[in-house]
Amino acid sequence: MRDGNEDRFVIREDGGLVLMAVADGVGGGPGGEIAAEAAVNELAGRFFAAPRTQPIAERLGDAMREANTAVLKAAEASSKPSAATTLVAGVVDGRHLVIANLGDSRAYLVRDGASRQITEDHAGTVEHGITRFVGDSRGVQADVFMEELQAGDRLVLCSDGLTRHVEPAEIAPTLDAHAGTLEAGADALVALANARGGEDNVTVVLYAARGARVSDRQRSTLALGVFVAFVVLVVAGAFAVLFSVAPYASP
Predict the structure, then answer these.
(1) Is the whole-model pTM more than 0.90?
(2) Residues 67, 46 contacting (CB under 8 angstroms)
(3) pLDDT tens string 207-244
(4) Rounded to whole angstroms, how far apart are CA atoms 245 and 215?
(5) Alpha carbon separation from 78 to 73, 138, 192, 250 (Å, rounded)
(6) Domains of the chain: which residue ranges?
(7) How far is CA 65 from the centre of its chain?
(8) At what angle do helices 32-49 and 56-77 cross, to 10 degrees?
(9) HSE on the CB side for 39, CA within 13 Å?
(10) Which CATH superfamily is domain 7-244 in?
(11) Cα-Cα-Cα-Cα dihedral of 216, 219, 220, 226, to 10°?
């Protein structure tokens, strides 16, 4: 089990665009938390600083590359040259969704009682080995995917702390069983992962397109804290974020 949290996330809305991202320090190695922090901060800053006339897919791809540069600089400054992180990011513009990823943090689209993985893992033959990541001195090229959202769709961004223990086919029924609030859905996914071992940090960002069932309370409340969902009202829908740090296993 990990005794520190190397997961980071960001949610930001500006000018009608919603950006969300999850980063997971690679392999629990030195500087994973530094890499993840630098990645999400640079991603958000660069994306929203780009010209609004530039297509969203290009803006997001460029921001992923700038995040790579930021991680390399942070790794050098902290004397942790191997610091690296995964990164999955999504941008919602009305009904349009753009997803980009490097590594094995994933994006799922939940629709009509079924979940579909949008991203493809960049993983090797070694278990949890990463072939593409943020913090690569050779440079990076993120995979970019585009989707059209429908009323009632839910988007799940998560670190592999969730997917190590929860099968893709379990995501939709778990959310459906706790559909009263986004907080309940995110909480249920994290609880399921922890109940099955919780060997890694778990971060889940849950987004609901308009038309999904969301409580009135959830539209106006911001809760903050470990093991407590973050609920943020945005123009295009609503979010819930829940992260947990796996407890340290004493010798």
Answers:
(1) no
(2) yes
(3) 988 765 544 333 322 222 222 233 332 334 566 665 54
(4) 27
(5) 9, 20, 35, 28
(6) 7-244
(7) 17
(8) 140
(9) 36
(10) PPM-type phosphatase domain (3.60.40.10)
(11) 110
